[in-house]
Design goal:
mainly alpha; 2 domains
Length: 240
């Protein structure tokens, strides 16, 4: 059973979080406007700020209320409460940094994570069909990372389902694996269920084929295989 002392610290942390997000909402909105103001998806800055705060709240509450088997979240809870005990101003610092991370996530998601519609042609965003790109490697050419990604795609999860810190950690892992920007974009497109023909259609090079992206994806999967354990741990921390 959870100790009364820890319950009180959790309540104090959450009370301070709500106080900060009310008192410092203008500052949070200023950051959101500065980071996302140029994005049409954030045209309503007040609404974008509200969604930002709710996303941070979701992460905080999931960590504070984590069960013992959710090791990554328990670790984050311990870290947050320890810093909060030492410095009551930590919550504000955390919220402002989390706001910046949220904005980076949205910049990446809106820029790379889904099809961009051409409003001049009355186009709309295309629905992602789960599982359409589930088979990349041939029989006998299994890749553990690709198997996990295929499972995520067929479960109808996507980049928007990930926590901000998970995306940050994955992007750091990609750099560690020496993936270039084209491969990173290909990964996130695939993660969101985009098919190789769709990727080719959006290529500025009109002669690009689906085979180009199929080969690119296969190469990046090979590069990530060396880091399969670390990759799994990061994802488990998000969905655990």
């Amino acid at each position: 059973m959870e100790s009364i002392k820890r319950q009180n610290w959790k309540k104090s942390f959450l009370d301070e979080f709500y106080r900060v997000t009310i008192v410092d909402e203008p500052l949070i909105r200023h950051i959101v406007k500065g980071k996302l103001g140029a994005c049409k998806e954030a045209a309503d800055i007040k609404d974008a700020t509200y969604k930002c705060i709710k996303d941070i709240e979701r992460i905080v509450t999931s960590q504070l209320n984590a069960t013992s088997d959710q090791k990554s979240k328990v670790k984050e809870r311990r870290k947050k409460l320890t810093k909060f005990k030492r410095d009551r101003g930590y919550v504000k610092k955390y919220v402002l940094e989390a706001t910046k991370s949220y904005c980076r996530k949205k910049q990446h998601y809106w820029g790379h994570g889904k099809n961009k519609a051409d409003t001049d042609k009355a186009e709309t965003h295309k629905e992602r069909k789960a599982g359409k790109a589930a088979r990349i490697h041939g029989e006998g050419d299994a890749n553990q990372v690709d198997n996990w990604i295929s499972s995520i795609v067929t479960s109808d999860l996507n980049m928007g389902s990930l926590q901000v810190d998970t995306i940050e950690r994955l992007n750091k892992l990609f750099k560690k694996a020496r993936l270039n920007e084209d491969k990173i974009k290909c990964f996130w497109d695939r993660f969101d269920g985009k098919t190789f023909p769709e990727m080719a259609e959006q290529d500025k090079d009109k002669s690009a084929t689906s085979d180009k992206y199929r080969k690119r994806y296969k190469r990046l999967m090979i590069q990530l295989e060396e880091y399969s354990t670390e990759f799994r741990d990061i994802l488990m921390g998000s969905y655990g």
